[in-house]
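Re: that chain you flagged

S.,

Sorry for the slow reply, it's been a week of failed gels. I finally had a moment to sit down with the sequence you sent. For the record, here it is as I used it:
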Amino acid sequence: MSRKLGPISTKKRLFLSGLAAGAISVAVSLLIRLFADGLFLPEIASQTLFSLTPGEIESRAVETLGPLAKYSALIGAVVANIILYGLISLLSLGSGRLHNRLRLKGYIGNAIQSSILAYVVLFFVGVILFALSETDIQTKVSSIATLSIHLILPSIVFGFLLSSFFYEMMHPSIQRRILSSKKQPTTIGTAAGSATNRQTEICYTRRQFLRAAIALAVALPIFYFGLGSLISPRQEVQQSTSSLLSQFQRRSAESKPVGFEDPRLAPLIASEITQTELFYRIDKNPIVPVVMASTWRLTVKGLVAKPLEIKYPELRNMSSIEEFATLECVSNKLDGDLISTAVWKGVRLKDILEKAQVMRRAKYIVFRCYDGYDVGIPLERGLSEGTILAYDMNGASLTAEHGYPVRAIVPGLYGMMNPKWITEIELVDGIYEGYWQRKGWANNAKYNTHSFIVIPGNAAIGKRFSNMAASTAIARSSSPSSGLVPIAGVAFAGDRGISKVEVSTDGGATWKDARLKYALSPYTWVLWTVEVNMTGKANNPYKIIARATDKTGKIQMAEIADPFPNGATGYPVINV
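Prediction finished late last night. Pasting the structure tokens below so you have them in one place:
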């Protein structure tokens, strides 16, 4: 039985049928990922792509797209997977030589052949992706074995759907009639038969497109809701007590800080602690890892006299502390929004290290995480009072996006040194370069001194402050051409603190000291504001510039530098 397809248009229809069957197959893989914690090939592909991307290119992507950089990679991988299924359909049913060698006949034969071929190709692609990943050999072998199981059902679905979509067009009698109608010269005797054959071809083509449309109608909602659930997983957040948060809320309700009474500053004051849903999120994962606290274990090993294994309830029962701390991503631009502040509750890391009895020759603490991320910090950072293993954020358990069940808070170091989903701590005797450091980012990741102008203007950092639109409306209803107008924002220098913020409205010719609100802790940003007289300047453009000085006396660097590899530097500028 020859199944060689002659007309190029028939191959196109076969390819489109493969895309439709592939869409359903990828949707099935997504459901397996959602409900059986299976391996999802597009997720593996997008993670591998990010792991292979040089740090400078990754920085540009984050600068331009933020979290959308990872999401676009994931969606692109889904599309690529569907296209791969289309190509498999051409190889499976479009190659007469392959069909003749396999000698599989009929609907079942076509389905089995397509299923086997899809499985082999996708498994081979998966093996390549795992080989390129940075995980250890044992994890790679385990993942490949798991993938070999999770690909079975999607491959079977693809094979039988493809055969169902295209079997009629593959049937020998139909192929002969279609080919003969195109090869025979048109005569009075054959015209009617040729027309009938063409009508038959049109009928089957319409049937194919209808089936493909139905397949897409089934797959698209699965993609929409399934990918949405993976990107933003639903989690039952457990409320917790937070004395620090309660004190902050009580003080905020009782009075406004001196110098911050202007109603246009209300959103700035109200969001000094960033709401959890507004807190920035940057990590290497296109899909948020979901870790079950019931099975979670923290292993402490390496250069310790007493290795530990700690369960989640045990960690929560240890002596805990609360602290305010600001996190900023090293990829943050001068006017970027990758900075936020929260109340964190957890266990001092030094208390855990004391239980494990760290050996004298240990120099670095290495964190390893559920998602394969790893990073190292100097031992002295881990022993500082402010470094904690946090399990609560803003008076509730951590969300999945922010590292549930446990993440590290390491004051003074950029966000990449504050890992999430921690499962292992190892003490080593040398400097350790983690995931981002191997891609070129700085290992000595101390925060640069930064200031941000939040009011006025439309800087991206405004996303971290709720009800900013209300402040803009108040500002527009007032008359900036007469009287004093507030300029306000935040400044941050890690654990060095902020001693002064200066503002210029004449391009840097003169500077005026801003009023500072007291810092929530030594590890947070500081709110600042200054009033300027805008009388007579309603129609004259001007430039607002800010600069901060940390408590060591070092002024924020004026030289503009991109985030990669040491974090951005420069003054924030707003053209009004």
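What I noticed first: The longest strand covers residues 339-348.

Talk soon,
D.
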